């Protein structure tokens, strides 16, 4: 028997997870459905990343458009505001889109509102097939994942569901108001309850990717303990945005975000959408915190010729970057966050992160021009989330005695934030964890 054949036989004697790890090359996805006596599928609810939820708008008589063109749809019912992104430039609607997507902060209410006369709602709530479809990147919004889930027996509207949300808002911290997320969490609770009732009372698996991971985590944290125990089978988080924040949102706020992809733009997309992005609560919800990134002169996150900014200086940074209107909103959110302690979800939880990818940990705007992309000093992470943030979340979860025994963390070297659920080899590991959550 040759050495290669002998090694192949030895590999077969190892546990499947270790065998896959030691096998040469990324493992292929196994599309075979597990035997019915091995896996009983629990309903699963998918919460997508920040750009994947479609929004509809309706313009009432109270709307005062900046140009007549932006008021063309006034009184004509609901229309797709953030739906098929390729239609925005085709209909010369980008400026109107920016105006009608903007949020206004109400300091008296401590909450965010649409512009007067603009009503919005999330489209396709409940369906795992109803997320945003980017014509140039059709795999971005959980499409590959739900296709793999269908291959093992899941069916949309029966055992598989989707829970899109208003991407402009952020899940509220304890003591903070959010009319948008209060309504969303109520709908999500009813969706999970209905999924459980429609599947012989089986508890649901809640899956969240990226910003959707943070949304799913905050939902479970805020649910009554008895409700969690009755309805949540497992919480599976893929590259969730961590409590301690990360550096990338600082760059997106300063130089503009390209997370909302609009094809065919002739001007720099990030700068064009920057005023709109800065009005969103989601733009400041994940700034790095001093608890994770430090707050002294020896821990600068932003470097300029005039001064440096640490995680403790983010309010001053916002003002310097031209976001003075966001500074007060940020101060209020961080003040609320500083009063609380870490809250574990207290349900079985698996957290999957990519590591080993260069990730920005320091931004250099030497001449103070925040319209330009910064020079970056990189460290470890998943290209977006810093490793130090991931480890801080893991440590906090393990410090909770009741959560520690129900917490599993997985680090996939080479997996990137956006493609951890689309690349074959990392998607296979995500699918393994979903199947394992069904078996437990």
From TrEMBL:
What is an example of a Pfam family matching this protein? LCAT
Keywords, A to Z, come to: Signal
Record the organism: Urochloa decumbens
Q: Which InterPro entries match?
A: AB_hydrolase_fold, LACT/PDAT_acylTrfase
Q: Is Signal among the key words of this record?
A: yes
Extent of the signal sequence: 1-19
Q: What is this protein called?
A: Lecithin-cholesterol acyltransferase-like 1
């Amino acid at each position: 028997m040759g050495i290669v054949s002998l090694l192949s036989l030895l590999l077969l004697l190892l546990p499947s997870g270790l065998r896959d790890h030691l096998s040469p090359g990324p493992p292929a996805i196994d599309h075979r459905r597990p035997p019915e006596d091995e896996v009983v599928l629990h309903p699963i609810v998918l919460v997508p990343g920040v750009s994947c939820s479609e929004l509809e708008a309706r313009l009432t008589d109270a709307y005062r458009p900046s140009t007549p063109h932006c008021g063309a749809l006034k009184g004509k019912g609901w229309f797709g505001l953030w739906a098929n992104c390729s239609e925005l430039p085709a209909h010369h609607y980008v400026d109107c889109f920016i105006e009608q997507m903007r949020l206004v902060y109400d300091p008296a209410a401590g909450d965010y509102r649409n512009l007067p006369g603009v009503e919005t709602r999330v489209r396709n709530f409940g369906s795992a097939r109803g997320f945003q479809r980017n014509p140039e990147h059709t795999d971005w919004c959980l499409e590959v994942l739900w296709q793999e889930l269908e291959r093992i027996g899941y069916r949309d509207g029966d055992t598989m569901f989707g829970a899109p949300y208003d991407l402009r808002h952020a899940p509220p911290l304890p003591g903070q108001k959010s009319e948008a997320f209060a309504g969303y969490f109520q709908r999500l609770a009813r969706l999970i309850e209905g999924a459980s009732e429609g599947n012989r009372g089986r508890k649901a698996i809640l899956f969240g990717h990226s910003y959707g991971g943070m949304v799913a985590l905050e939902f479970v944290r805020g649910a009554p303990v008895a409700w969690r125990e009755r309805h949540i089978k497992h919480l599976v988080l893929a590259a969730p945005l961590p409590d301690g924040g990360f550096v990338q949102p600082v760059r997106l706020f300063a130089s503009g975000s390209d997370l909302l992809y609009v094809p065919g733009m002739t001007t720099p997309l990030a700068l064009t959408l920057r005023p709109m992005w800065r009005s969103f609560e989601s733009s400041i919800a994940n700034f790095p915190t001093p608890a994770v990134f430090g707050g002294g002169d020896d821990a600068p996150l932003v470097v300029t010729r005039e001064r440096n900014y640490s995680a403790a200086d983010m309010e001053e940074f916002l003002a310097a970057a031209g976001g003075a209107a966001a500074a007060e909103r940020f101060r209020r959110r961080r003040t609320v966050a500083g009063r609380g302690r870490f809250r574990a979800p207290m349900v079985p939880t698996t957290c999957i992160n990519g590591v080993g990818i260069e990730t920005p940990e320091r931004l250099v705007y030497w001449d103070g021009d925040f319209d330009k992309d910064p020079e970056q000093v990189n460290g470890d992470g998943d290209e977006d989330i810093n490793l130090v943030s991931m480890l801080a979340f893991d440590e906090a979860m393990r410090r909770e005695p009741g959560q520690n025994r129900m917490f599993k963390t997985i680090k996939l070297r080479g997996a990137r934030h956006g493609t951890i659920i689309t690349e074959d080899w990392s998607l296979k590991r995500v699918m393994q964890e979903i199947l394992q959550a069904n078996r437990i």
